[in-house]
Amino acid sequence: MSDIEIRDERAAGRLEAVAGDEVVGRIEYFALDAPERALVPVHTVVEPAHEGRGIAGSLARELYAAARREGVAVAPLCSYVVKWAERHPDEAPAADPELLRAAKEWLVAHPGRF
After folding, report:
1. Are 62 and 89 in contact (CB under 8 A)?
2. pLDDT at residue 1 tops 80
3. Quick one: the chain helix, strand, coil %, rounded to 5?
4. Rounded CA gap, 37 and 74, in Å?
5. Which phi and psi (to 5°) does residue 39 adopt?
């Protein structure tokens, strides 16, 4: 993983893992404003040639670290991030059910976004 840089492309809604000039993995997410501010990961993708190198886990870890730095919650809708959070409760606090409901409603209201 030392050759992988993780970049937050907030305007595009992507946290990207970059090797050289190639994006080898990403978490697609959106920022929720209400009922509280939160980052909401929706999809995690790692390019097949780069699977098995811990890239998805590093992306999830960085997403939660970014949320901590910003003082916001994470409301994971991505199945990978949900499972990662269950395995790392010390790094990934459980999301409030109301926040998860609001994130799901936002996603339904924006069907073309993801």
Report:
1. no
2. no
3. 40, 30, 30
4. 9
5. -95, 135
